[in-house]
From TrEMBL:
Domain of life from the UniProt record: Eukaryota
Cellular compartment(s): Golgi apparatus membrane
Family annotation (Gene3D superfamilies): 1.50.10.10
Family that this chain belongs to: Belongs to the glycosyl hydrolase 47 family.
Pathway involvement of the protein, from the record: Protein modification; protein glycosylation
Major place of residence: Golgi
Protein name in UniProt: alpha-1,2-Mannosidase
UniProt keyword list: Calcium, Disulfide bond, Glycoprotein, Glycosidase, Golgi apparatus, Hydrolase, Membrane, Metal-binding, Signal-anchor, Transmembrane, Transmembrane helix
Signal peptide bounds: none
Taxonomic path: Eukaryota, Metazoa, Ecdysozoa, Nematoda, Chromadorea
């Protein structure tokens, strides 16, 4: 919230420096002093109070993925945040009066036109970031200022630059790529990072982004930076079991788990290290990274899984113990399954243990958690809490359609391949229904299946959309696998809805309620918009020889790594 601090300081400066205070009021010098001290006291109270207010929208959204407790805070603070954002916007309008011109939808009636249109969207969003938030983690597109969510700590580490650079390269935004490259060549993560960083997010966005920039360009600088970042994360792996802590402070070296996780690590986090670490060791010849990620895998292989399922929480002792028996295909679990499959593919299908563990895990989930809705025959993975079934499916979980299709594309056994192709189509359809059944044509964060609703939500706290990619990601894999035009059309519908509802003054923003015909924007342009949503949209309108899936595998942040053959 540094932008507010800046504005407060500006106001403070104006008040203290303005000669009109004393002249207009006709006060003597000791009275002026008393007035000044009074004003300063009041301002100090205001500024201090400000720092105790909750942080911005995306912080809450991110934490919301992980903790139900935060949802209450979210609702309570909504009105407060709205007011705060209106003020911010007003001040930003004064400070930056000329908005960047927006792209026109034009004659985008074939794949090429649509691809060019997506490229224009990327340029528009990038220009906004470049102009108003360069070096910050993310952009507030309406306030036209920097933004940072809690996953990045509180330093200005240019997350958008690193998450976006491979997309800039792929779509051919050369000037923009060059500028990003120059910034990264001076990037010193150790100096810039402040506070608690998420080990998982740093790995998938920073290490992953830099590795893919290297894989695409062959520019060694990116590989060196990727190794630097990953090396800084290594202290988090110093635990009895080797399962890493969730958070690390690079300045103090302090490592910890989330306060709400009761000392436990999270499946999707410690389980989504292997692609990056293994690739890094392979490229650099430095074995330490692969050793760390293999250790996690060995520990997991040795553990007994309840009915073949992987609970979300695990202790960090040696040997570790599972926490509460919560199972999901979505938040806090998702990319663990994704990485099992992709690690097998990334190693040129040589890692058979990983393939077997992937198949066993998905099979167990199909058995216990896969449902078909009663009225519309929509397939989805429910959540399990012990034996209690929650008929809820998340936007995050929609990635699994693409995952099973990718399995089908790589599977030799035709029956198994057909089974997962069908499942992928069904999941892609369900997630499309969650979009089609909303007012904006954009799907909510989470949706339910009950006797009265299917693929919709009536929960206010689940109705938002923060530019997530998982649904388009699944349509991308389905397009590549089937060449059914409907997947391109669905992607194009999403582009148009983004234009209508998510476009802000200088970029794209999340929306607070997908069921609102005039939705309020959350004023956050997530870094994964560039890394994932834009990339998948661009690729779905491209030919298959742009990043062919038999040569490239995407990490969970959609950063492409070369498959080892
Ligand atoms: C991304 O950072 C990654 O895809 C991650 O695995 C899950 N969530 C976001 C996007 O929604």
């Amino acid at each position: 919230m540094l932008e507010n601090e800046f504005f407060e300081r500006e106001e403070l400066g104006k008040l203290l420096l303005s000669p009109r205070i004393s002249n207009d009021m006709g006060l003597r010098s000791h009275e002026q002093l008393v007035v000044c001290v009074g004003v300063m006291f009041l301002l100090t109270v205001c500024i201090t109070a400000f720092f105790f207010l909750p942080s911005g929208g995306a912080d809450l959204y991110f934490r919301e993925e992980n903790s139900v407790h935060v949802r209450d805070t979210f609702i309570r603070n909504e009105a407060l945040r709205k007011k705060e954002q209106e003020e911010l916007l007003k001040k930003a309008e004064e400070a930056n009066p000329v908005p960047i011109p927006k792209p026109e939808i034009g004659a985008a009636d074939d794949a090429e036109g649509r691809r060019v249109f997506v490229k224009q969207m990327i340029k528009f969003a990038w220009d906004g970031y470049r102009k108003y938030a360069w070096g910050e983690n993310e952009l507030r597109p309406n306030s036209r200022s920097g933004h940072s969510s809690s996953i990045f700590g509180y330093g200005k580490t240019g997350a958008t630059i690193i998450d976006a650079i491979d997309t800039l390269f792929i779509v051919g935004l050369k000037e923009e790529y060059k500028e990003a490259r120059d910034w990264i060549s001076e990037f010193n993560f150790k100096d810039l990072a402040k506070g608690d960083l998420s080990v998982f997010e740093t790995n998938i966005r920073f290490t992953g982004g830099l590795l893919s920039a290297y894989a695409l360009t062959g520019d060694k600088m990116f590989l060196t930076k990727a190794e630097d970042v990953a090396t800084l994360l290594l202290p988090a792996f110093e635990t009895p079991s080797g399962i890493p802590y969730s958070l690390i402070d690079l300045q103090t070296g302090r490592v910890k788990t989330y306060s709400w996780a009761s000392g436990k690590a999270i499946l999707s986090e410690y389980g989504s290290i292997q692609l990056e670490f293994d690739y890094l060791s392979n490229l650099t010849g430095n074995p330490i990274f692969a050793q760390k990620s293999n250790k996690i895998r060995d520990v997991l292989t040795a553990m007994e899984k309840p009915e073949g399922l992987y609970p979300i929480y695990i202790s960090m002792d040696n040997p570790p113990r599972w926490g509460q028996h919560l199972f999901s295909m979505g938040a806090m679990a998702d990319s663990w399954y994704e990485y099992l499959l992709k690690q097998w593919i990334a190693t040129g299908k040589t890692d058979q243990r990983t393939k077997r563990e992937y198949e066993e895990a998905i099979f167990a989930m199909e058995k216990r958690m896969l449902y078909k809705s009663e009225q519309s025959n929509l397939w989805y993975f429910a959540k399990l809490n012990g034996n209690r079934v929650e008929h809820s499916f998340e936007h995050l979980a929609c990635f699994c359609g693409g995952m099973v299709v990718l399995h089908a594309m790589n599977e030799e056994n035709a029956t198994i391949a057909q089974h997962y192709m069908d499942l992928g189509k069904n999941i892609g359809h369900t997630c499309h229904e969650s979009y089609a059944r909303s007012t904006t044509g954009i799907g909510p964060e989470s949706f339910q299946f009950t006797s009265s609703i299917e693929a919709k939500t009536e929960r206010r706290q689940d109705s938002y959309y923060i530019l997530r990619p998982e649904v388009v990601e699944t349509w991308f894999y389905l397009w590549r696998a089937t060449k059914d035009e409907k997947y391109r059309q669905w992607a194009w519908d999403h582009v148009q809805n983004l234009e209508k509802y998510a476009k802000g003054n200088a970029g794209y923003s999340g929306i607070r309620n997908v069921y609102d015909s005039n939705p309020e924007q959350d004023d956050v342009q997530q870094s994964f918009l560039f890394a994932e949503l834009f990339k998948y949209l661009y690729l779905i309108f491209s030919d298959d020889d742009v990043l062919p899936l038999d040569q490239w595998v995407f990490n969970t942040e959609a950063h492409p790594f070369r498959i080892r053959h």
